[in-house]
Amino acid sequence: MKELNKQTIKLQINNRRDEILEWLKKLITFPSENRYPDGFEGEAQSFIESECRNCGFDVDVFLPTDIEGIEKHPYWLNGRNYDNNRKNVVAKWNSKGNGKSVLFSGHIDVAPFEPDNWKTTRPFVPLVKDGRLYGRGASDMKGGLAASFWALKILKDLGYEPDGDIIFESLVDEEFAGGNGTLAARLKGYNTDFAIVTEPTRMEICSACPGAILGDFIIKGNAGMPYMGVPIYNPIDGAARVIELFKEWKTYWRSINNSHELFIGNDNALNYLIWDISTRISDEFIQMGTPAVVKISWIVWVYPGTSEERFFNIFRNFWDEKIKKDNILRNFEFDIRQSFHYIRPWETPKDNIGVNKLKSCFTEYTGKEKNITSATFSCDMAIYGEVGDMPVVLLGPRGDNLHGSDEWVLLEDIYDLIGIFILFIKEWCK
Fold first, then answer.
1. For tag attachment on the chain, is the N or C end more exposed, with fewer CB atoms within 10 Å?
2. What is the DSSP-derived secondary structure letter of residue 139?
3. Can you tell me the distance from the alpha carbon of 408 to that of 248, in angstroms, rounded to the nearest whole number?
4. Digit-coded pLDDT (tens) for 77-113
5. What is the model's pTM?
């Protein structure tokens, strides 16, 4: 086998660009949507399993619920269904030496394709245009999965023999605040000396991610028609006021949190998202009149080190004070509820040896210096770090329209990531 250096690696990748692209396009054609509480990852996972077996890896396939006692674990999210062949695929490349091990991990489930205002292509009909590959899951995160798989496949085809074990895994049920697939793999023991999760970080090396608190703001009024001489306050008016005051919450939340060295700049600042507003919180019929209830569903992001208890104490106190003083809000009853489990933040020390090795491999392959930073989104990073007891980073391609129409990934990043991962394996697994 020729010496593995930047030039030989680039040549190998360039010679197989068409093959890599067709493989990723095929992966996108599988509609592996997560439609909470159900999911449709089975067909895509069967393809991944077959490809891993063809490479000669040791392959394990299992449901999250196959792990004894998993549903009692504090990281487990109740209410998910796994009857639809929603199995993890874990492929292990066993080494013959005593070198350091590495895990390449990602999730196969994608967000639903709605709202259906796709214009460039249909969600599961991949299309290449101007160096971008369009399709649902192209960026989040089948592009990253393809990069890590092809790094291993190219090395395997070259006859490379690592001195440390290498694990590649394709996991189910990450979307919709999930993580049960990741939890199952960690509890089954597929943990290594270092982990790389190929979430779409825009080619940034992220050793931290924010946590996410998800909840509902319930505004209660009196239903009826407001024209019979007795005022009926419309909770939709209350909802409008709450939405406006969320901007003040953001300013306040940022002001009381000490800045974090990995969360610098507007893109990484703590934020919030209102993602649903509804006058229906049950299946009962809704009259054409003033609604009794409005529900606002929200997400607030938090720094590493923030507990649920601290957050909710601050959050409820903020709103209690606002409601007391506001002429509109004082007309309603309010309830603040947590809707999903806590998506915990995580931070791997940026001076970790694996983090710095990945940084040097990135620079060597691309010629670009790279600072260690944080992700702008929450994910299941803490499950790798706390449950798997692994140093973990996020590194994935550039793209856009994640969870929206016309999602795309930059193909050049996929090819660069393959090269970076090959270099890292060479330097780390020895």
1. N
2. I
3. 34
4. 999 999 999 999 999 999 988 999 999 999 999 999 9
5. 0.94
